[in-house]
Amino acid sequence: MKTCLVLALLFCSGSVLANSVCGGTTANGYVRNAVKLPSKGDNFTSYSKMAELAGRTYVH
């Protein structure tokens, strides 16, 4: 539910400038034009500090 809210806010705010594209696998993949989620906000926090540090908190 929190993820849907964040995605909706990003979409409505105009932060998404271009369509994102991803390919490959979860072990060896890529994503272009994705939006990095912030660590925390008024009504949410990141699901994992380790995921943030590893660069795995982008929205496709």
Quick summary:
This protein has two helices and six strands; from the N terminus they run αβββββαβ. With 60 residues, the chain is α+β, with helices and mostly antiparallel strands.
Describe what you observe in this structure.
With 60 residues, the chain is of the alpha+beta class. Helix content is 28%, strand content 27%. It has helices spanning 2-13, 49-53; strands spanning 21-24, 29-32, 35-36, 40-41, 44-45, 58-59. Strands 1-2 form a two-stranded antiparallel sheet. Strand 1 (21-24) and strand 2 form a beta hairpin. The radius of gyration is 12 Å and the shape is flat. The model has no long low-confidence stretch (mean pLDDT 79).
How are the SSEs placed, and which strands pair?
Layout: H1 2-13, E1 21-24, E2 29-32, E3 35-36, E4 40-41, E5 44-45, H2 49-53, E6 58-59
Antiparallel strand pairs: 1-2, 3-6, 4-5
